[in-house]
Amino acid sequence: MSELQGLVLKNYNGYYYVQVGEVTYTCKVKGKMKQNRFSLATGDQVLLEPGEQKGACACAYAYEGMIKKVLPRKNFLPRPIMANLDLFVVTFACATPDFSFLLADKLLALAELARIPSILVLNKLDQAPAGLVDEVRAVYEPLGYKVFAISAQSGTGVAALREHLKGKICAFGGPSGVGKSSTINAIDSSVELRTGEVSEKIGRGKHTTRFAQLLPFDEGYIADTPGFGNLLLEGLEPEQAVAAFREFAQYEAGCRFCPCSHTHEPVCGVKEAVAAGHIAASRYESYLAMLEEIRLLKEKEGRK
Ligand SMILES: Nc1nc2c(ncn2[C@@H]2O[C@H](COP(=O)(O)OP(=O)(O)OP(=O)(O)O)[C@@H](O)[C@H]2O)c(=O)[nH]1
Ligand SMILES: [Mg+2]
Ligand SMILES: [Zn+2]
């Protein structure tokens, strides 16, 4: 039987949902592929072997198939696990839960290492503390990260964001409760993703979205993803932390040592740039915190 090429929209309940033209195939993965420990990601392009069509019904899920091969990826984001993205939409709330420079830097770092362009979305503008949006813009816009301040609830800023996402394969990522699903609902009135309250007691979301899924949107796709846990940096090496901060490279000529970790070394161009205010203090603090976290994670892995 002839093979078909399709796009993995989601992985749910042990099945991969693969879009081929107008039809969605419900697929399993061929045993041989599983042995190779090859993980499939939402956004992967795959070759599948169509099975028998079940009954006469031509509804979307009447088609089954077997995935035989994953085609080479343009890029790969480990958390949230996604392949072939044109844009990663790092999403936070201005409040409930509060914005975190460190978490923002971690997510931007993962996209940077995967060479995926990213933007920042600050949702819940209606609850923003005075000055927060300007503070975030001042740190990220000079680095080339676009910042969209929006309210999914009132609709403020949503049109500009929608315009920016058109025609691309985009994934939203961010902590639970920041309004990723709410924002996608506001961008595309034809989708109705489930959203959940933020716990009043702990000020965090309740992990309402359980799996990543790509939704067709204006010649492209938008992916909703679950709010992440804490283990964003697992598997990273300390040198990768340096590479994840795009503004550091231009100051490394001023470092006496090469490579320089920009921590304890005397004469360091990066530390000088921080002291002179050319690199944002919050970014350098995030870098140090990430280095420490990577070190601890490695130590833990080593003990296993
Ligand atoms: N005040 C305010 N609340 C909002 C806004 N957008 C979303 N919310 C609320 O924030 C809560 C969380 O929204 P969700 O869309 O479920 O958040 P999420 O990021 O998808 O969360 P997970 O699926 O758990 O990762 C819901 O109670 C929404 O009604 C907004 O612009 N302003
Ligand atoms: Mg959600
Ligand atoms: Zn240095």
Give the topology.
Blueprint: E1 4-12, E2 15-20, E3 23-29, H1 31-35, E4 45-50, E5 63-70, E6 76-77, E7 82-83, E8 87-93, H2 101-113, E9 118-123, H3 132-140, E10 147-149, H4 158-165, E11 169-173, H5 180-187, E12 213-217, E13 220-224, H6 238-244, H7 269-275, H8 281-303
Parallel strand pairs: 3-5, 8-9, 8-11, 9-10, 11-13
Antiparallel strand pairs: 1-2, 1-4, 2-3, 4-5, 6-7, 12-13
Helix pairs in contact: 2-6, 2-8
The structure holds guanosine-5'-triphosphate (GTP), magnesium ion and zinc ion.
Properties at a glance:
Rossmann fold, binds zinc ion, alpha/beta, 8 helices, OB fold (Dihydrolipoamide Acetyltransferase, E2P), binds guanosine-5'-triphosphate, 304 residues, six-stranded mixed sheet, binds magnesium ion
Question: What would your notes on this structure say?
Answer:
The strands form three sheets. The chain has a six-stranded mixed β-sheet, sandwiched between helices. A five-stranded mixed β-barrel has the order 1-2-3-5-4. The protein has a two-stranded antiparallel sheet with strand order 6-7. The radius of gyration is 21 Å and the shape is globular. The model has no long low-confidence stretch (mean pLDDT 93). Strand 8, helix 2 and strand 9 (118-123) form a beta-alpha-beta unit. The protein is 26% helix and 23% strand. It has eight helices and 13 strands. With 304 residues, it is an alpha/beta fold. It has three domains: 4-72, OB fold (Dihydrolipoamide Acetyltransferase, E2P), CATH 2.40.50.140; 77-224, Rossmann fold; 238-303, Ribonucleotide Reductase Protein R1, domain 1, CATH 1.10.40. The protein binds guanosine-5'-triphosphate, magnesium ion (MG) and zinc ion (ZN). The site of magnesium ion (MG) has 5 residues, from helix 5.
